[in-house]
Amino acid sequence: MALLAIAVGLLIGLILAFARDVFDDRVRDVAQLERRLGAATLAVLPPAEHVSVVGRNGVKRQAPAIATAESPNSRAADAVRVLRATVVAAAARGNLHTFLVVSTDAGVSSGRVAAELGVALAESGRRVLLVASDVRGSVLPQIFDVPNNNGLTDLLAGGGDPEVVTHHPKQASGTPLPATIVKRLAVLPSGHQLANTLSIVHSSGIRDLLQSQRVNYDFVLLDAPPATVSDAFALGSHVDGVIVLASEARTRGRAVEGVRHSLDQVGAVVIGGVFVGRSKVGRHRQQRSPEQSPVISPAPASTDRTGSAQAARPAPPVTRPFPAVPGGTPSGGPAKRSS
After folding, report:
1. At the N or C end, where does the chain have fewer CB atoms within 10 A?
2. ∠ CA(77), CA(78), CA(81), 5° rounding?
3. 264: number of Cβ within 10 Å
4. Model-level pTM?
5. Residues with Cβ < 8 Å from 141, sequence gap 6 or more?
6. Domains of the chain
7. What 3-state DSSP class applies to 183?
């Protein structure tokens, strides 16, 4: 009787596990993310922690903690440095300078990850511009406590000198930044909410703006609204590479595949994914060295309506032509540094 009960219990367990695999397609580990995205994982980051900060207006608020500033010797900060190493390696191989950070859904803040990566890159001696291109909800002005009365939308609508509305933040979520980082890190806030904000962001003006900043900075990082909003894909067509974020046990596998498909349609280059969670597999994968960092991969093969496999689409070119910049060079960017 006892053996029968054990057998029934095992059978029920197998049925439940099979049902979960069939009906629950939430991304639970790095391998699932890579399979769905068709690209390697750049790093595994822990979920965000929030801290109370007092802004320049004296109002107390919550902001995502930036581990590379608040606790630079922590495991969370080390995980960000793994992301830095893989991004630097991809940039060196493909001469990439401008990157969009986009979340598959609202479960992960692209602004927080962009801020972490930006501080880490500045820490390593690189000049970094963070652009709050999520014009309806970027957390970058809050994290770095910079004024948001003028910024990206104002530049795209009326022109002007980007340096006038760009700020060198002195703190990140209430933690003072070292002077060396302050000197190398700049933030371009989103600016005014205009009636035609979306059409402005979708215009070629942002492409020209990014091209001009390639001369002034080693890396230009843009945050983006969740991929459920079309802005993310429009922005993806104007940058050199896209980093896709997914949240453990929250992001749906079908959503990841949909993001990859939409980015492919606009010719965006997906350099890899970032898994946000506490997966043991993810922590193991973090130990990969920069020399083992993934290469930019093409989209996975798809199937037609009859179910027959189609050849995988070739990867789009890593760089795409830009208009020449007065006083600069088409390639932009200074000499590479070690990670």
Report:
1. N
2. 90
3. 20
4. 0.79
5. 132, 147, 148, 151, 187, 189, 190
6. 24-292 (3.40.50.300)
7. helix
